[in-house]
Design a protein that fits this description.
alpha+beta; about 35% helix; about 160 residues; 2 domains
Length: about 160
């Protein structure tokens, strides 16, 4: 199943993706104009934190509580979250849970470092990385049958889930 990446935390981006992000918004010039007088005072760690903040602003505009859901087939629908938690003692299935809207579901799935993708069915897939490993969630339209559609889990999480 092909996934289209919609958003990625700054620290999960490859160097190439970070460079594209910088070219699009000309962040270095903005950072230098607002925080430093010249490039000699530029501090890489501070700049990376600034880039993460800007990236988080993009995230909040697109996926936050008032985010723009116009593109999503899940917009304004009751959704269901299924997934796997990667913890220190192994993988654990998430008890499927229904949410009134997409924003609440996404908020419930996020960790410090995230990748949000969309599959060919219009479902959102969140990969959330933390100190013990990776959580992986799928957010899909809630149906009257509920969490019985296990083929999505098998497709996304593999047969070991």
């Amino acid at each position: 199943m092909k996934e289209k990446i919609l958003w990625k935390s700054w620290y999960l981006m490859s160097q190439e993706e970070q460079n594209e992000f910088l070219e699009d918004g000309d962040l270095l010039a903005c950072y230098l104009d607002n925080y430093h007088e010249d490039i000699d005072t530029y501090i890489k760690e501070e700049f990376e934190e600034y880039c993460q903040e800007v990236n988080n602003e993009y995230f909040n505009n697109d996926f936050g509580e008032d985010g723009n859901w116009a593109y999503s087939p899940l917009k304004d629908q009751e959704v269901e979250v299924q997934g796997i938690l990667g913890l220190w003692d192994g993988k654990h299935k998430v008890v499927p849970k229904k949410f009134d809207n997409l924003s609440e579901a996404i908020s419930a799935c996020l960790e410090d470092y995230n990748i949000i993708a969309e599959d060919s069915y219009g479902n959102l897939i969140i990969s959330a990385y933390h100190h013990d490993g990776q959580n992986k969630f799928i957010i899909k339209k809630s149906t009257p049958k509920g969490p019985r559609c296990l083929h999505f889990c098998k497709t996304v999480f593999g047969s070991g889930a």
